[in-house]
């Protein structure tokens, strides 16, 4: 039912909130922000794919979407400071908005239009694989091209 779906989503977001705290710690103290973003995006994509293709019960859907969303929140939480700190201070806000916020906003515009058009043609699983899983894998790949510097280093010091 619609009420069950809404409840499932709400509980998934409760699980997902753990991702904010975990990724902040991991990206700051265990590895780099870049590696944290890549790992969260790729693990999230894998978990989403497994959920899309193999989760059929409310419990497996809750676990799958909860973990997927936790990893997506993790990625976003760390991506924001990463995309801010890789640009010089004088253009930081504009550059972060153009490279980060604009991409997320564009995705939230395109996906709701693409999903209803694609589902009748290729089904739910292929649609969410095409619209969700593949873009996440590609996004993680794009982050591989960034320099992997220690978290918190001032960008001006990197050019010295």
Describe it.
The protein has 5 helices and no strands. The model has no long low-confidence stretch (mean pLDDT 84). It starts with a helix and ends with a helix. It is globular, with a radius of gyration of 17 Å. The longest helix is centred in the last third of the chain and has 52 residues, at 92-143. The protein has 160 residues and is mostly helical. Helix 1 (2-30) packs across helix 3, helix 2 (33-54) runs antiparallel to helix 3 (58-85) and helix 3 crosses helix 4. 84% of the residues lie in helices and 0% in strands.
SSE run: HHHHH
Broad shape: globular
Category from helices, strands and their pairing: mainly alpha
* Structure annotation, total helices: 5
Count the beta strands: 0
Major pleated sheet: none
Q: Span between N and C termini?
A: 59 Å
Low-confidence stretches: none
SSE topology sketch:
Layout: H1 2-30, H2 33-54, H3 58-85, H4 92-143, H5 155-158
Question: In a nutshell, what does this entry contain?
Answer:
The mean pLDDT is 84.
Task: Give a quick set of tags describing it.
mainly alpha; globular; 160 residues
